[in-house]
């Protein structure tokens, strides 16, 4: 059974750096094809993909936010950490992490399990 | 910057059929974009429905199906139920990175 849970501050000030942790169970980030992604959703708006880290430590970032994001993994702790620098009120959103997998045998790619999300408010 | 486009809103009657689409600014959507579809209801995390164009997760109701249609990914709901009223998002894979569509608000009326 796969579960993911996001944790981190609920309130950050403008210009500060946000650090979010995704703690997961039911899978290993050292298994070929597996990835963990971060996605955010401002209140009333659409989902926006932020970053992905794969089992082989390949890291991908949204082009529009790449300069502000860093994603890392700690396989032994079953955690993925996302940092976002220079936070602004427009970054107020619910932040989700999700499990992804590329199944080499069937040639399929999917996001399946999501965390419950954590609301981060940026305000002075 | 790649943009993935969905219909902003659609309305369907209970028991009816509706098709939502997902287009890429880079050109025709093919199976190599591994289209995924998600359903999101207010206050909830997204729930995965369809992956790699037409594959269903074990929890996906049979009335949901995915396909490629006219150069776009498509999600079809047949025999729509009131509980299908929700926001629907597609996701496309671009060689390691992904992009979400802007979402379709589906109203069942």
From TrEMBL, chain B:
Q: Start and end of every Ig-like domain?
A: 1-90
Pfam families cross-referenced by the UniProt entry:
V-set
* GO terms, biological process: adaptive immune response
Q: Which domain of life is it from?
A: Eukaryota
Instruction: Provide GO CC annotations from the record.
Output: extracellular region; immunoglobulin complex; plasma membrane
Assigned keywords, A-Z: Adaptive immunity, Cell membrane, Disulfide bond, Immunity, Immunoglobulin, Immunoglobulin domain, Membrane, Secreted, Signal
Matching entries from Gene3D superfamilies are given as: Immunoglobulins (2.60.40.10)
Per UniProt, subcellular location reads as: Cell membrane; Secreted
Q: Which residues form a coiled coil?
A: none
Task: Fetch the PANTHER family from UniProt.
Answer: IMMUNOGLOBULIN LIGHT CHAIN (PTHR23267)
Q: How does it assemble?
A: Immunoglobulins are composed of two identical heavy chains and two identical light chains; disulfide-linked.
Record's protein name: IGL c2508_light_IGLV7-43_IGLJ2
Q: Upper lineage ranks? A: Eukaryota, Metazoa, Chordata, Craniata, Vertebrata
């Amino acid at each position: 059974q796969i579960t993911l849970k996001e944790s981190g501050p609920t309130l950050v000030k403008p210009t500060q750096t946000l650090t979010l942790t995704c703690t997961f169970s039911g899978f290993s980030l050292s298994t070929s094809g597996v990835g963990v992604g971060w996605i955010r959703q401002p209140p009333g708006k659409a989902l926006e993909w932020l970053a992905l880290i794969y089992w082989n430590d390949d890291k991908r970032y949204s082009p529009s936010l790449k300069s502000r994001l860093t994603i890392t993994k700690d396989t032994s702790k079953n955690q993925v950490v996302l940092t976002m620098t220079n936070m602004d009120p427009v970054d107020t959103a619910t932040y989700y992490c999700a499990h992804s997998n590329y199944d080499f045998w069937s040639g399929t790619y999917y996001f399946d399990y999501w965390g419950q999300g954590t609301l981060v408010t940026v305000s002075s | 910057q790649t943009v993935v486009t969905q219909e902003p809103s659609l309305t369907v009657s209970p028991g009816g059929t509706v098709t939502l689409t997902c287009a890429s600014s880079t050109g025709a959507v093919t199976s190599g974009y591994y289209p995924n579809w998600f359903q999101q209801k207010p206050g909830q995390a997204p729930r995965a429905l369809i992956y790699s164009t037409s594959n269903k997760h074990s929890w996906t109701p049979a009335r949901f199906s995915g396909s490629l249609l006219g150069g776009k990914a498509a999600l079809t709901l047949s025999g729509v139920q009131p509980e299908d009223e929700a926001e629907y998002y597609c996701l496309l894979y671009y060689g390691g990175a992904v992009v979400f569509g802007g979402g379709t608000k589906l109203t069942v009326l």
